[in-house]
Amino acid sequence: MVKPVPAGSPTRISVLRDNRVVPLIPTARAGKATPQPWRHIKLERHAVGAIEIPEHVHGEFCLHLQLSGADDFEWWSEGRNRVERTAPGAMILLAPGTRDRLHWQGASERLILSFEPELLGDAAPSFRNRWSLDDPALAHLLRGMEAERASNWPLGALYADLLGLGLARHMLQRHASTPRRFELQGKLPMPKLRRTLEFMTDNLNRDLRLEDVAAEAGLSPFHFAREFRATTGQTPYQYLLDQRIDRAKHLLRATDWQVGEIGQQVGFASPVNFVRAFRQRVGATPGAWRSGSF
Question: Which residues belong to any copy of the HTH araC/xylS-type domain (predicted)?
C-alpha cells in the first residue's frame, strides 16, 4: 500500500520523490505563482522541454492536457512501459497513489491540474490510469479553468468553485470505474451563468437592476433570482456585493484615490454606504484596511 504523500506547497503541484515532497515539474512555471481561489485544486501551465521526470508518487489525482508539441513520450509505471504518440489535445489521467516515471522526447506546452480526492465527495469510486486519454469535453473544461487563472479570476471565487464542481461531475460520470451521478443544484446552465457573472463584473460601477442581469440570461427577474441562488448558493446581490468589495480592495492597494472615489468606482452611491458595506464584509473600514491598522 502506497503511503499518503505529505502536503506540499500550497501553490505548486507536488509529488513524493526520494522521501521528499517536490514540485512535479522541476522547471519554473510559465504562469505566475499566485493563490488560486478554488478548493482542492491546483492548476499550472508549463513549457516542458525534452526532459525526464524521475520516479515519483502522486498523492492526488493528476491531469495533463497537451497544448502544443507532437513528440512522443515514454512512461514507466506498475511494471509496465510504453511509448505514447501525442498531439495538441492529448491528455493523461493518473489516480492518487500512482508511482511512475516519464520521459518527454521533445518540447511541449501543457496544462497540469491536480485535485484532492475530497473534490469528489465521500466514498469516491476508483479510477483507472489513462496514459492516452481523448476527452474533448474535459479538455474544454480545463482550458476554461486556465482562462480564469490567466486573467486573475475576473468572475471571483464563486465561479471558480462552480468550475471545480463541474470537473468533479465530469470525472465521476465519465471516468470513474463505476460511473456515478453528480447533480449540481439548480438549473441555470453554465453558459448563461457565466454571461450573467461577466455582465455584473463588467458593470460594477453601475446601479444594476435585477431585470438588467436577468435579461442577460433571457429569464424573468423572479425565475433568474431563484435559479441563480439554487445554482450558486448566493443571491445575485450577494455575488455583486462580493465582487464590488474585491474590486475596492484592489483599488485601495493599487491607487491613492480617496475612499469616496473608490466607492463610486465600484457602484456605491454614497461614501457612507460604501464604508458601511465594506466594514460589514471585511471587519474594518476601507481606510483602516488600506493602512493595515486593524
Answer: 194-292
